[in-house]
Amino acid sequence: MEHNPVALIIDDDYQTAKQLAASMKRFNWVVHTETDGAEAIRRLEQLPVGFVISELVLPGSGGIEIVQWLKRNRQGLPIVIYTSTASLDAAVNALKSGAVDFLLKPLTPQQISELCHTYRETALEIGERTQSNNKPKATFYSRNEELSKLYRAVIDKIAQTDTTVLIQGESGTGKEVMASLIHHYSKRKDKPFIKVACAALPESLLESELFGHEAGAFTGAVKQRIGRFELANGGTLLLDEVGDLPLPVQVKLLRAIQERTIERVGGERTIKVDVRLITSTWHNLAEDVKEGKFREDLFYRLNVIKIHLPPLRDRIGDIEGLTKMILERLAKRLGKAAPILPPQTQIALQRHRWPGNIRELENVLERAMVLMSSDVLTPQDLGEPFSILAMEVPAEGEIPTLKDARKHFEREFICRVLRKCDGNVSQAAELMKIARKNLYEKIEQLAINLEQLREDSVQESPIIALTK
After folding, report:
1. What is the dihedral of CA 122, 126, 127, 132, to 10 degrees?
2. Which of 53, 82, 183, 209 would be 193's cystine partner, CB 3.0–4.6 Å?
3. How far is CA 300 from the centre of its chain?
4. 362-387: string of b/e by CB count within 10 Å (b at 16+)?
């Protein structure tokens, strides 16, 4: 529960939002900021906000649209509209729509003090009520049209059936989140949601983990154990990384799916189970079938409805929204206000290749949130790869340190040599007169993506001309 009132400031000028947020924090408010109207509405749906200050003119939904949305969805939540220049008609329109006040920028210290004191109790009451009504549940975010359609299909169609689902995607792309969404919106939502990490268990334990065992079934089985199929009875069972199941266990899984029955290891009794099965994997199971690593009959049983989750590097447009959503969740857990996300940081996040996908993004942001010392999340807070990536677009008037400038030049030089050599590290090392091992170390230190470089066409530098 938030013990301080919570405010949301919506302003496309992040410096203004930052200054106003700092002023309100001095009155013991928890303050979140947003620069886009549509994104602000999304955050209002998730956060226990009790008071809103919004610019009149915004990208996405404008201030009046936000007032109207609050009137429909969060009646009683006070919102103040402010702007640099406005007519009397604009003020009247805002007040008629439901705003509690209309002010001109910049707000004076006296005005900020009055707003903080006037709406404190109301904000506390609304925030606590909103938080108690919002039960935790899985969320899936994307501005991508195809993924948004998939999300709606999950809620409207897939979740409503008991059909087996196969979720494919790289590690960290959100396969477990998608599986929990299917369960959450299904008729089984009040029953267990059980997960088995197939890749984390040795073959000798997998069968017992899935189907259970009787006492004395094998050495060390001193008492009866209920397996995950039985635990999930009536609910949903997720087999995570099903592609790592050994062939003998695949045979028994196939029987469980076909007959909806199991037998515990060492047992003779057949047990009926009613389970909705969801599987996930990073493997290409169709290829594994061809290579004899995965049973064809089991593959067809699992591949009834297939969902593919793309890697984060193919969802660049989602990175900003995902980052803000993760920061909000971390802020609540750490007891902090979500930091402001300046353009340089957003660019650095978008330029990273994210081999660990959303899970890597969460880890990077959590480390930064713990260690950062201001309310603005800078590329430096994220660590060296991101500070290097952000150096390519320095803020207006900013002069990098000599150390950073050297790194920037070194990274650009190595990238251009590698492009010239079509990504051949040995050839590039020979051209630069350094050891191949040392070049690999530099590539790692400077966050250079070899795969991407190999896809790029050879481009001559306007500063450095390379010849073989």
Report:
1. 150
2. 183
3. 31
4. bebbbebbeebeebebbbbbbeebbb
CB 239 within 8 A of CB 277: yes
Cα 327 to chain centroid, rounded: 9
- The residue with tokens 């169609």 is 157
Q: In this structure, which amino acid lies at residue 123? A: A
Which pLDDT score is estimated for 462? 35
Determine how β-strand 51-55 pairs with β-strand 261-262. Answer: unpaired
What is the distance between the alpha carbons of residues 256 and 252, in angstroms, rounded to a whole number?
A: 6
pTM of the model: 0.59
Contacts for 399 with CB less than 8 Å, ≥ 6 apart: none
Q: How confident is the model at residue 89 (pLDDT cuts 50, 70, 90)?
A: confident
Where residue 35 falls among pLDDT bands split at 50, 70, 90? confident
Rounded to whole angstroms, the Cα distance separating 146 from 114 reads: 46
Q: What does DSSP say about strands 212-213 and 225-226: parallel, antiparallel, or unpaired?
A: antiparallel
Whether 39 and 60 have beta carbons less than 8 Å apart is answered as yes
DSSP label at residue 188: T
Secondary structure (3-state) at 207: helix
Local structure of 271: helix, strand or coil:
strand
Percent of the chain clearing pLDDT 90 (strictly above): 37
Q: What integer pLDDT is reported at residue 465 of this predicted model?
A: 35
Angle between helices 63-73 and 88-97 (to 10 degrees): 20
CA–CA separation, 399 vs 75, rounded Å?
A: 48
**Position 467 pLDDT exceeds 60:** no
Q: Give pLDDT tens digits for 357-402.
A: 999 999 999 999 998 888 899 888 888 778 777 665 555 455 666 7
Say what the pLDDT of residue 132 is.
Answer: 55
* Distance, CA of 234 to CA of 260 (rounded, Å): 12
- CA 381 to chain CA centroid, Å, is 18
Tell me the per-residue pLDDT of 316-359, one tens digit each, with 9 for 90 and over.
Answer: 888 988 999 899 889 888 888 889 888 888 888 988 889 899 99
Q: With 90 as the cut, is the pLDDT of residue 461 above it?
A: no
Q: Let me know: does 37 contact 79? Beta carbons within 8 Å.
A: no
Helix, strand, coil content of the chain in percent (nearest 5): 50, 15, 35
Q: Is the per-residue pLDDT at 463 higher than 50?
A: no
| Main-chain dihedrals φ then ψ at residue 401, nearest 5 degrees | -70, 160
For 42, other C-beta atoms within 10 Å of its C-beta total 17
Half-sphere exposure in the Cβ direction for 218 (13 Å, CA)? 10
Residue with tokens 């081999």: 355
- d(CA 142, CA 317) in angstroms, rounded, equals 8
Look up residue 57 and give its DSSP letter. Answer: S
What value does the CA radius of gyration of the chain take, rounded to a whole number of Å? 27
